[in-house]
UniProtKB/TrEMBL annotation:
It holds the Pfam family CarboxypepD_reg. It comes from Erythrobacter westpacificensis. This is Carboxypeptidase regulatory-like domain-containing protein. Keywords: Signal. Residues 1-22 form the signal peptide. It comes from the Bacteria.
Length: 151
């Protein structure tokens, strides 16, 4: 009878699904202008894991279960921005995170697509930079001398 119990236990162990292997997740947190963000808190809320980005905006989690994980970047005013990352059974996944600007988030709260708002913001900044460049260029030129047609 003891032999049957041991054999049944061994068979049950082999029949159990194996646990997912562990993989790593790393990446860079960038602001809305694609600059790395140092000192940002990156979390995986479902697992209770947290890390801080280093000077060049990189973060890393090791030994995660394989599969889809929701990653959060903690922002000021108790706000978070989320991204999804698919961790492999072995090896490393890279998930770079680009943060929306405050203006884009405000637009999103008003029902406007934050990606479109971010693009519009970038285009407006580019237009202002071009206008400043043109004004500076115009100010450095000598005034034009027009011929006198009166006489």
């Amino acid at each position: 009878m003891t032999r049957i119990a041991i054999l049944a236990s061994a068979a049950a162990l082999f029949a159990m699904p194996s646990l997912a292997h562990a993989g790593d997740l790393s990446g860079t947190v960038n602001d809305s202008t694609a600059r790395p963000v140092a000192g940002a808190q990156v979390t995986i809320p479902a697992l209770g894991l947290s890390t801080i980005t280093d000077a060049d905006g990189t973060y890393r989690f090791e030994g995660l279960a394989a599969g889809e994980h929701r990653v959060a970047v903690e922002l000021a005013k108790d706000e978070r921005q989320f991204a999804e990352a698919d961790v492999p059974e072995t090896g490393e996944a890279t998930r770079n995170i680009f943060l929306y600007s405050s203006a884009s988030l405000d637009q999103a709260r008003n029902g406007i697509n934050p990606v479109e708002a971010m693009l519009a913001e970038a285009l407006m900044a580019q237009a202002w930079d071009e206008a400043r460049r043109m004004i500076a260029q115009a100010e450095t030129r000598e005034p034009l001398s027009l011929p006198d047609f009166t006489g």
